[in-house]
User: What shape does this take?
Amino acid sequence: MKDETILNHDTYKDQHGAVVPPLYQNSLFTFDSWDDIDKAFDDKSENFLYSRLLNPTVRVAEEKIAQICHGEKAKLCASGIAAVTSAILHCVKAGDHIITIKNIYGPTNTFINNYLHNKLNITATFVDGRDVQEFQDAIQDNTTLIYLESPASLTFELQDLQAVAAIAKKYNIKTAIDNTWASPLYQRPLDLGIDIEIHSVSKYIGGHSDVVAGVVVGSKTIVDEIILAEHELLGAKMAPFEGWLITRSLRTLAIRMRAHQENAFHIAKYLESHSMIKRVFWPGLPSFEQYELGQKQMTGYTGLMSFELATKDISKIKAFVNALQLFKLGVSWGGHDSLVYAPVISYLKELSPDQFAAFGINESIIRISVGLEAHEDLIIDLDRALEECI
Assistant: This one.
């Protein structure tokens, strides 16, 4: 079936003809006999015992996400970073080595570079990621994970997923990717050989700026192991109501993504032609350095992009951001609403100046999430605000 059909039909058993799956807002599940509950404990990753692990409402969303990602199983978590940390912890032990890219999501960088290093003596090599040979050269005897984010944060560099996966399999190294930017519909890393796919469900999958969640997708073996270790023991559970909201959001994912993409094309072309814009970072533009690779491994483009203003005058940069009316100032993205954010606000609080510079960004970089408003109105908003930079 096509994605749109999968997203709008459920596999759950009919509940009195209800067109929407019921909300199982319960903490535990009871059994008729000793033998029944004893049997359930034999496979906690498949049987309903306690909603910290499994819940019928949450499972409806998980099954749908697994299908559209072409994975065998999915596990929803309480947040995107819970999904990230669960997946990473699954692949490493004390003293191991991770290869990742320089321009990854800030909290993921902190988790790998600081938390894992300080707590478990896990080391990491950060590579640019655009040259596959960098991954090969960075492999050590204790490398157990290659962690990717393609497109990467802020400047959206791509990694050749199929080539990296082939290298990793040769050395029996696990691969994981934060695939949030592309959404499950526009890039399918599992089909390209990646082991674990991660999404911040708060972004496009949720789509309405009203859910905080994450998801891990992969083979049944990998996801079951994560459920019984990282998920159960660290308590990153998904609440039933949030699971219900996610299923609601999945109904419109395909049509929302088409609208985000169409709006983003108009905005990116407008920005590229403006005299106060030095450059635009968006893989959907033919001028993007890795456009051909994007065409090879992605089937569409989403609404998150960044651009560099043609000024380093911080007062003018602030004036531009403050002049926007439809683009609201906020830290997240991927919802129905258009947002703007200046990475310099938080990144220098989370990273050292050297790490910040290594990201290839500066104070003039602005990130926008193009929402579902009329693109004509968004362009007028940007045009008016850009006058503050002149």
Residues 3-250 form a domain with the Aspartate Aminotransferase; domain 2 fold (CATH 3.40.640.10). The two ends are 52 Å apart (CA to CA). DSSP finds 16 helices and twelve strands in the chain.
